[in-house]
Amino acid sequence: MNTPPEEFVRVSPEALRSFALACLQVAGMNTVHAEQLARLLVDSDLRGVRSHGTRSLRGYAKMIQQRQVNPDPQISIIAETDTSIHIDGDGSLGYAPTMLATEKCIEKAKAKGTAVGAIQCIGHYGSAGHYVRRAMAEGLIGFSVQSASPQYYANNEGRRAAHYGNPPMCFGLPSAQEPPVVLDVATCILADYQRGEQFEALEELIPAAFFKSMGFTAIGTALGGAFVGQATERAGQIQQTYPAARLGGMIWLVDASLFVPGEMFRGAVDDMVRLAREQLVPMRGYTESTLPGSVEHRLEQEYGANGIKMGQLERDRLTELGTELGVEIPW
What we know:
- About 45% of the residues lie in helices and about 20% in strands.
- By secondary structure, the chain is of the alpha+beta class.
- It folds into 2 domains: about 100 residues, Malate/L-lactate/L-sulpholactate dehydrogenase, four-helix barrel (Hypothetical Oxidoreductase Yiak, Chain: A, domain 1), CATH 1.10.1530; about 200 residues, Malate/L-lactate/L-sulpholactate dehydrogenase, NADPH binding domain (Ribosomal Protein S8, Chain: A, domain 1), CATH 3.30.1370.
- It is globular and about 50 Å long.
Protein backbone atom coordinates (compact mmCIF):
# COMPACT_ATOMS: atom_id res chain seq x y z
CA MET A 1 0.00 0.00 0.00
CA ASN A 2 2.80 2.43 0.83
CA THR A 3 4.92 1.62 -2.22
CA PRO A 4 5.05 4.79 -4.37
CA PRO A 5 2.51 4.48 -7.20
CA GLU A 6 3.87 3.84 -10.69
CA GLU A 7 1.10 5.91 -12.32
CA PHE A 8 0.28 9.14 -10.55
CA VAL A 9 -0.44 12.83 -10.69
CA ARG A 10 1.41 15.37 -8.56
CA VAL A 11 -0.70 17.28 -6.04
CA SER A 12 0.70 20.18 -4.05
CA PRO A 13 0.64 19.71 -0.26
CA GLU A 14 -1.10 23.07 0.14
CA ALA A 15 -3.94 22.11 -2.23
CA LEU A 16 -4.39 18.76 -0.51
CA ARG A 17 -4.50 20.39 2.94
CA SER A 18 -7.15 22.85 1.79
CA PHE A 19 -9.22 20.04 0.29
CA ALA A 20 -8.96 17.90 3.44
CA LEU A 21 -9.85 20.86 5.67
CA ALA A 22 -12.93 21.67 3.61
CA CYS A 23 -14.11 18.04 3.67
CA LEU A 24 -13.73 17.79 7.44
CA GLN A 25 -15.53 21.08 8.03
CA VAL A 26 -18.45 20.07 5.80
CA ALA A 27 -18.59 16.73 7.62
CA GLY A 28 -19.05 18.63 10.89
CA MET A 29 -15.67 18.70 12.64
CA ASN A 30 -14.84 21.93 14.46
CA THR A 31 -12.42 24.16 12.56
CA VAL A 32 -9.44 23.99 14.94
CA HIS A 33 -9.41 20.20 14.96
CA ALA A 34 -10.09 20.04 11.22
CA GLU A 35 -7.08 22.26 10.46
CA GLN A 36 -4.83 20.12 12.62
CA LEU A 37 -6.10 16.84 11.17
CA ALA A 38 -5.77 18.06 7.57
CA ARG A 39 -2.15 19.00 8.23
CA LEU A 40 -1.27 15.69 9.88
CA LEU A 41 -2.90 13.60 7.15
CA VAL A 42 -0.97 15.45 4.47
CA ASP A 43 2.22 15.06 6.53
CA SER A 44 1.74 11.31 6.21
CA ASP A 45 1.24 11.64 2.45
CA LEU A 46 4.44 13.68 2.24
CA ARG A 47 6.36 10.85 3.89
CA GLY A 48 4.84 8.27 1.54
CA VAL A 49 2.77 6.70 4.32
CA ARG A 50 -0.39 6.71 2.20
CA SER A 51 -2.11 4.17 4.46
CA HIS A 52 -2.36 6.84 7.17
CA GLY A 53 -2.67 9.95 5.02
CA THR A 54 -5.59 11.46 3.16
CA ARG A 55 -6.60 7.94 2.18
CA SER A 56 -8.22 7.92 5.65
CA LEU A 57 -10.19 11.10 5.00
CA ARG A 58 -13.32 9.41 3.67
CA GLY A 59 -13.58 7.11 6.69
CA TYR A 60 -13.07 9.96 9.14
CA ALA A 61 -15.67 12.12 7.41
CA LYS A 62 -18.24 9.33 7.66
CA MET A 63 -17.41 8.75 11.34
CA ILE A 64 -18.01 12.42 12.03
CA GLN A 65 -21.21 12.63 9.98
CA GLN A 66 -22.64 9.50 11.62
CA ARG A 67 -21.48 10.64 15.08
CA GLN A 68 -19.39 7.55 15.55
CA VAL A 69 -16.98 10.04 17.16
CA ASN A 70 -17.65 13.38 18.84
CA PRO A 71 -17.22 16.20 16.26
CA ASP A 72 -16.91 18.94 18.88
CA PRO A 73 -15.51 17.36 22.08
CA GLN A 74 -14.81 18.95 25.42
CA ILE A 75 -11.27 17.68 25.91
CA SER A 76 -10.27 17.84 29.57
CA ILE A 77 -7.31 17.21 31.86
CA ILE A 78 -8.13 14.56 34.45
CA ALA A 79 -4.87 14.77 36.41
CA GLU A 80 -1.47 16.41 36.01
CA THR A 81 1.94 16.40 37.72
CA ASP A 82 5.37 17.78 36.84
CA THR A 83 6.09 14.67 34.75
CA SER A 84 2.68 13.34 33.70
CA ILE A 85 -0.67 14.30 32.28
CA HIS A 86 -3.92 12.33 31.89
CA ILE A 87 -6.38 13.59 29.29
CA ASP A 88 -9.97 12.64 28.46
CA GLY A 89 -10.80 13.00 24.77
CA ASP A 90 -14.59 12.99 25.24
CA GLY A 91 -15.16 10.62 22.33
CA SER A 92 -13.21 12.61 19.73
CA LEU A 93 -10.86 11.27 17.08
CA GLY A 94 -7.52 10.74 18.75
CA TYR A 95 -5.45 13.39 16.97
CA ALA A 96 -6.29 16.56 18.93
CA PRO A 97 -6.19 15.12 22.47
CA THR A 98 -3.02 13.12 21.78
CA MET A 99 -1.25 16.13 20.28
CA LEU A 100 -2.33 18.16 23.32
CA ALA A 101 -0.77 15.52 25.57
CA THR A 102 2.36 15.58 23.42
CA GLU A 103 2.77 19.35 23.67
CA LYS A 104 2.31 19.24 27.44
CA CYS A 105 4.81 16.39 27.75
CA ILE A 106 7.36 18.26 25.64
CA GLU A 107 7.31 21.09 28.17
CA LYS A 108 7.56 18.69 31.10
CA ALA A 109 10.34 16.54 29.60
CA LYS A 110 12.43 19.61 28.82
CA ALA A 111 12.03 20.77 32.43
CA LYS A 112 12.28 17.42 34.24
CA GLY A 113 14.01 15.06 31.79
CA THR A 114 11.07 12.78 31.11
CA ALA A 115 7.28 12.86 30.91
CA VAL A 116 4.40 10.54 30.10
CA GLY A 117 0.96 11.39 28.77
CA ALA A 118 -2.12 9.17 28.87
CA ILE A 119 -5.22 9.76 26.74
CA GLN A 120 -8.53 7.96 27.23
CA CYS A 121 -11.88 7.90 25.41
CA ILE A 122 -10.68 8.62 21.88
CA GLY A 123 -11.00 7.22 18.38
CA HIS A 124 -8.21 6.42 15.92
CA TYR A 125 -5.17 8.66 16.30
CA GLY A 126 -3.59 7.75 12.97
CA SER A 127 0.11 7.15 12.69
CA ALA A 128 1.83 6.96 16.07
CA GLY A 129 4.71 8.76 14.40
CA HIS A 130 2.84 12.09 14.34
CA TYR A 131 3.35 12.58 18.06
CA VAL A 132 6.83 11.12 18.28
CA ARG A 133 8.05 13.26 15.38
CA ARG A 134 6.67 16.39 17.04
CA ALA A 135 8.71 15.59 20.14
CA MET A 136 11.83 14.72 18.14
CA ALA A 137 11.74 18.21 16.62
CA GLU A 138 12.40 19.44 20.17
CA GLY A 139 15.38 17.11 20.70
CA LEU A 140 13.42 14.45 22.60
CA ILE A 141 13.35 10.68 22.33
CA GLY A 142 9.78 9.47 21.98
CA PHE A 143 7.50 6.46 22.20
CA SER A 144 3.78 6.31 21.52
CA VAL A 145 1.20 3.52 21.32
CA GLN A 146 -2.58 3.26 20.90
CA SER A 147 -4.91 0.41 21.77
CA ALA A 148 -8.16 -0.64 23.41
CA SER A 149 -8.67 -2.43 26.68
CA PRO A 150 -9.02 -6.20 26.15
CA GLN A 151 -11.52 -6.46 28.99
CA TYR A 152 -14.01 -4.38 27.02
CA TYR A 153 -13.28 -4.70 23.34
CA ALA A 154 -11.05 -7.58 22.27
CA ASN A 155 -12.59 -10.77 20.95
CA ASN A 156 -9.94 -13.40 20.23
CA GLU A 157 -12.27 -16.38 20.00
CA GLY A 158 -11.22 -18.46 16.99
CA ARG A 159 -8.53 -16.00 15.88
CA ARG A 160 -5.14 -17.36 14.82
CA ALA A 161 -2.37 -16.49 17.26
CA ALA A 162 -0.34 -15.15 14.33
CA HIS A 163 -3.01 -12.45 13.81
CA TYR A 164 -3.22 -11.44 17.48
CA GLY A 165 -3.96 -7.70 17.59
CA ASN A 166 -2.22 -4.91 15.73
CA PRO A 167 -1.82 -1.76 17.86
CA PRO A 168 0.21 1.07 16.26
CA MET A 169 3.37 2.16 18.01
CA CYS A 170 6.36 4.33 17.27
CA PHE A 171 9.86 4.82 18.66
CA GLY A 172 11.82 7.89 17.54
CA LEU A 173 15.48 8.89 17.97
CA PRO A 174 16.51 12.42 16.93
CA SER A 175 19.63 12.82 14.81
CA ALA A 176 21.84 15.73 13.78
CA GLN A 177 22.70 15.48 10.06
CA GLU A 178 21.42 12.06 8.99
CA PRO A 179 17.74 11.13 8.81
CA PRO A 180 16.30 10.36 12.27
CA VAL A 181 15.48 6.81 13.27
CA VAL A 182 11.69 6.47 13.34
CA LEU A 183 10.23 3.00 13.84
CA ASP A 184 6.56 3.72 13.04
CA VAL A 185 4.83 0.35 12.88
CA ALA A 186 1.98 -1.87 13.98
CA THR A 187 2.80 -4.95 16.01
CA CYS A 188 1.44 -7.80 13.87
CA ILE A 189 4.12 -9.30 11.61
CA LEU A 190 1.53 -9.82 8.86
CA ALA A 191 -0.49 -7.07 7.22
CA ASP A 192 -4.27 -7.36 7.20
CA TYR A 193 -4.29 -8.50 3.55
CA GLN A 194 -1.76 -11.27 4.19
CA ARG A 195 -4.05 -14.20 4.81
CA GLY A 196 -4.19 -17.73 3.45
CA GLU A 197 -2.18 -20.94 3.37
CA GLN A 198 1.02 -19.41 1.96
CA PHE A 199 1.22 -17.05 4.92
CA GLU A 200 0.17 -19.64 7.48
CA ALA A 201 3.11 -21.77 6.34
CA LEU A 202 5.41 -19.06 7.69
CA GLU A 203 4.31 -19.92 11.22
CA GLU A 204 6.34 -23.13 11.09
CA LEU A 205 9.26 -21.58 9.23
CA ILE A 206 9.79 -18.53 11.48
CA PRO A 207 7.80 -19.08 14.69
CA ALA A 208 10.03 -16.74 16.70
CA ALA A 209 8.89 -13.78 14.60
CA PHE A 210 5.25 -14.49 15.43
CA PHE A 211 5.97 -14.97 19.13
CA LYS A 212 7.71 -11.57 19.16
CA SER A 213 4.71 -10.06 17.39
CA MET A 214 2.34 -11.47 20.02
CA GLY A 215 4.53 -10.07 22.78
CA PHE A 216 4.62 -6.59 21.25
CA THR A 217 0.84 -6.72 20.82
CA ALA A 218 0.29 -7.66 24.46
CA ILE A 219 2.54 -4.85 25.70
CA GLY A 220 1.01 -2.32 23.31
CA THR A 221 -2.53 -3.32 24.29
CA ALA A 222 -1.80 -2.99 28.00
CA LEU A 223 0.04 0.35 27.76
CA GLY A 224 -2.16 1.97 25.13
CA GLY A 225 -5.43 0.66 26.57
CA ALA A 226 -5.82 -0.43 30.19
CA PHE A 227 -2.91 1.68 31.51
CA VAL A 228 -4.39 4.93 30.19
CA GLY A 229 -7.94 4.38 31.37
CA GLN A 230 -9.76 2.25 28.79
CA ALA A 231 -10.88 -0.27 31.42
CA THR A 232 -12.81 2.39 33.34
CA GLU A 233 -16.56 2.87 33.54
CA ARG A 234 -16.14 6.27 31.87
CA ALA A 235 -14.52 4.63 28.81
CA GLY A 236 -17.36 2.15 28.55
CA GLN A 237 -19.94 4.94 28.66
CA ILE A 238 -18.16 6.93 25.96
CA GLN A 239 -18.12 3.93 23.66
CA GLN A 240 -21.88 3.54 24.11
CA THR A 241 -22.36 7.12 22.90
CA TYR A 242 -19.56 7.22 20.29
CA PRO A 243 -18.87 3.63 19.12
CA ALA A 244 -15.63 4.47 17.26
CA ALA A 245 -14.13 6.11 20.36
CA ARG A 246 -13.08 2.86 22.00
CA LEU A 247 -9.36 3.56 22.19
CA GLY A 248 -6.71 5.10 24.39
CA GLY A 249 -3.20 6.33 23.72
CA MET A 250 0.11 6.99 25.41
CA ILE A 251 3.06 9.26 24.69
CA TRP A 252 6.32 8.89 26.61
CA LEU A 253 9.19 11.35 26.10
CA VAL A 254 12.78 11.52 27.35
CA ASP A 255 15.22 14.38 26.91
CA ALA A 256 18.07 13.11 24.71
CA SER A 257 20.49 15.11 26.91
CA LEU A 258 19.31 13.50 30.16
CA PHE A 259 22.56 11.52 30.67
CA VAL A 260 24.98 12.84 28.04
CA PRO A 261 25.14 16.03 25.96
CA GLY A 262 22.34 16.03 23.41
CA GLU A 263 24.70 16.64 20.50
CA MET A 264 26.68 13.55 21.52
CA PHE A 265 23.58 11.38 21.39
CA ARG A 266 22.39 12.82 18.08
CA GLY A 267 25.88 12.32 16.64
CA ALA A 268 25.78 8.67 17.70
CA VAL A 269 22.43 8.27 15.92
CA ASP A 270 24.01 9.84 12.83
CA ASP A 271 26.84 7.30 12.96
CA MET A 272 24.39 4.43 13.34
CA VAL A 273 22.34 5.53 10.33
CA ARG A 274 25.40 6.20 8.17
CA LEU A 275 27.21 2.96 9.01
CA ALA A 276 24.09 0.90 8.34
CA ARG A 277 23.79 2.53 4.92
CA GLU A 278 27.47 2.18 4.06
CA GLN A 279 28.33 -1.23 5.50
CA LEU A 280 25.30 -3.51 5.57
CA VAL A 281 24.54 -5.83 2.66
CA PRO A 282 21.00 -4.98 1.48
CA MET A 283 18.25 -7.54 1.95
CA ARG A 284 17.33 -9.61 -1.08
CA GLY A 285 15.29 -7.63 -3.56
CA TYR A 286 16.54 -4.26 -2.27
CA THR A 287 19.34 -2.01 -3.49
CA GLU A 288 20.21 -0.22 -0.24
CA SER A 289 20.31 -0.66 3.51
CA THR A 290 18.46 2.01 5.45
CA LEU A 291 17.27 2.25 9.02
CA PRO A 292 13.59 3.03 9.67
CA GLY A 293 12.78 6.64 8.89
CA SER A 294 15.31 7.21 6.10
CA VAL A 295 12.98 6.50 3.19
CA GLU A 296 10.24 8.68 4.71
CA HIS A 297 12.78 11.48 5.20
CA ARG A 298 13.83 11.29 1.56
CA LEU A 299 10.24 11.27 0.26
CA GLU A 300 9.25 14.19 2.47
CA GLN A 301 11.94 16.32 0.87
CA GLU A 302 11.12 15.20 -2.67
CA TYR A 303 7.32 15.45 -2.36
CA GLY A 304 7.58 18.76 -0.55
CA ALA A 305 9.52 20.21 -3.47
CA ASN A 306 7.71 18.57 -6.40
CA GLY A 307 4.25 17.61 -5.11
CA ILE A 308 2.84 14.43 -3.63
CA LYS A 309 2.48 11.43 -5.91
CA MET A 310 -1.19 10.45 -5.89
CA GLY A 311 -2.19 7.16 -7.48
CA GLN A 312 -5.47 6.41 -9.21
CA LEU A 313 -7.04 4.63 -6.21
CA GLU A 314 -6.46 7.53 -3.83
CA ARG A 315 -7.56 10.03 -6.48
CA ASP A 316 -10.81 8.17 -7.11
CA ARG A 317 -11.60 7.85 -3.39
CA LEU A 318 -11.01 11.54 -2.71
CA THR A 319 -12.81 12.66 -5.85
CA GLU A 320 -15.87 10.68 -4.79
CA LEU A 321 -15.70 12.18 -1.29
CA GLY A 322 -15.34 15.72 -2.60
CA THR A 323 -18.28 15.23 -4.95
CA GLU A 324 -20.46 13.89 -2.13
CA LEU A 325 -19.59 16.79 0.16
CA GLY A 326 -19.66 19.50 -2.51
CA VAL A 327 -15.95 20.33 -2.08
CA GLU A 328 -13.95 21.53 -5.09
CA ILE A 329 -11.49 18.90 -6.38
CA PRO A 330 -7.94 20.34 -6.71
CA TRP A 331 -6.73 17.96 -9.48
